[in-house]
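User: Mind token order:
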Amino acid sequence: MWRKTALLVLLMSVVSVMPGRAMASDESEVRDFVARWNAAYTGLDAKALAALETPDFELIDRFGHWIKSEGPEFNERLWEIGFKEIYHGKPGPPRTVESIRFLAPNVAIVQARANHPDGVALDDGTRVPPFWEINTYTLIKTDAGWRVALLNIHNQINFGDEGTGQHVPEAVTSGSKK
């Protein structure tokens, strides 16, 4: 009985260590993915970005528009149009990884921050105050490496800097008086 228990404990400890080792190399691969994403994004390289996405890529942009891909060519055109019509040939800031969470060996959620310290000037002359954004990447590990299946962009504005109608009220918890 003692031998069976010792063998079971030994097997469980080996199995529990193995995913941690795989995760360390996977974390490095995910960080490399974000570096490649940054190079393509700041380089306004639509083709390279599309190559880092799954064929069924989905994007929820900063305005809440949910864009579902129609394939790799669609993804490339999406970025080309965005770089021309929205970015006007000026690259956005790179993303800095804030956290990586593995949901499974082949699925990772990455939270990355991009800072816009000078704000943004819109086509109509409106100035958006300085802000940052949190980009949530859902990555899938494929035979070709990590690819983004879903990108969700969340704008973040400092409290007090919001314009009319932009302020999000504080949450009221049970028992608190507001």
